[in-house]
Structure formats: structure tokens, C-alpha cells
Amino acid sequence: MSIFGIGIDVIEVERIERLLEGYGGKFAEKVFTRTEREYCDAQSRPGLHYAARFSAKEAVAKAFGTGIGKDLEWLDMEVRRRSSGAPQLVLSGAGKRFAESQGIVEVLISLTHAKSYAAANAVAMTASL
């Protein structure tokens, strides 16, 4: 496999908590899938988990080199948990079509968070030629 692109992002958890409080469901529904919202809302500190997922989506957009827009929308990316607990990125819609058009076969992600910050990195991989 070869690297198509890498991305990293860090965000203040408080920023996401303010957006969730200020815009409530509208912000969450625009940025996070139903599955992501259910997972985050079930945690003792939802904002921390929302922030990590927000950061992961920003990191993927950087790895793709597209930003968030025509080729990759917020809801085209879903952060899931493998049975091991490791995060997994699942693409759909325009994001999946873009990945396929570029030969991207997998996007590896890593999440981390502390009291005040959440961060993520992403590595978009293509099949070796």
C-alpha cells in the first residue's frame, strides 16, 4: 500500500461543547451521523467524544486534500469503533466516490483526547502499484 495523504487536527473540546449547547441538535445533525450521535450522547462527557470525531473528520479532509465541501461532506464520514475499541472510518456518498476515484482503499485514523483538547490523525492509503 502507498500513502495518498496524511492529515492531523486538534480542537479545543470547549469549542465543540459551546456549539452543541448553542445550536443543539442542528449542529450535531449537520456534522455527525445518527450512530455517532448515539455513541457520543451515551458517554459521561459527550462533548469530548464529539470533539474527537470532529477532529477526525477534519484530519480526513486534510489527508484527502479536499477540505469539507463538494468532494467530501461531514456526513460522508463516520467514525465507528471496531470490536477491539480501535476507531474505524467508514466513507459514504461523495466521500466514498472521491476515494474510489483516487484509488484510496483505506483511511486509517487515530483519536485522542484529554480534559481540554481532542486530536486525530488520518492516513489515506492507496493500493500499491
UniProtKB/TrEMBL annotation:
It comes from the Bacteria. The keyword Protease does not apply. It is an enzyme of class 2 (transferase). This is Holo-[acyl-carrier-protein] synthase. Mg(2+) binds at D9, E58. It comes from Haloferula helveola. InterPro entries: 4-PPantetheinyl_Trfase_dom (IPR008278), 4-PPantetheinyl_Trfase_dom_sf (IPR037143), ACPS (IPR002582), Ppantetheine-prot_Trfase_dom (IPR004568). Its cofactor is Mg(2+). Its main location: cytoplasm. Residues 5-101 form the 4'-phosphopantetheinyl transferase domain.
